[in-house]
Amino acid sequence: MTEVPLRERLARTIAQCCDGAISAEEILAADCPLAAMGVDSLALVRFIDAVESELHVLVELDGDLWMRDLDSIAGYVSGLLAPPTGG
């Protein structure tokens, strides 16, 4: 079994959190902020909860990151999953 790429996995999770109002395919193909697609604050709270539960990370709610596009969110989550660097 192959692992689903993070970007695709996040798009599917966002779609589920929107109760299917927006498909994962639409999210993957979008060239605009998620808010412009109709992703509301309730869906984002559900999404953050799902990401924290599934990936065992702590998502910080600072700035406007969550009103951006899928690539920004994928980059942020990818950084959370990266092993810490020594120093």
Pick out its properties:
Non-ribosomal Peptide Synthetase Peptidyl Carrier Protein, Chain A, globular, 87 residues, mainly alpha, 4 helices
Beta-strand fraction estimate: under 5%
Using the CA coordinates, give the radius of gyration: 13 Å
Number of domains: 1
Assign the CATH topology. Answer: Non-ribosomal Peptide Synthetase Peptidyl Carrier Protein, Chain A
If you had to describe this structure to a student in words, what would you say it looks like?
- There is one protein chain.
- It contains 4 helices and no strands.
- It is mainly α and 87 residues long.
- It has a single domain, classed as Non-ribosomal Peptide Synthetase Peptidyl Carrier Protein, Chain A, CATH 1.10.1200.10.
- The N and C termini lie far apart (36 Å).
- The model has no long low-confidence stretch (mean pLDDT 88).
Write the layout of secondary structure elements.
Layout: H1 6-17, H2 24-29, H3 41-55, H4 70-81
Give a short synopsis of this structure.
By secondary structure, the protein is an all-alpha fold. Helix content is 52%, strand content 0%.
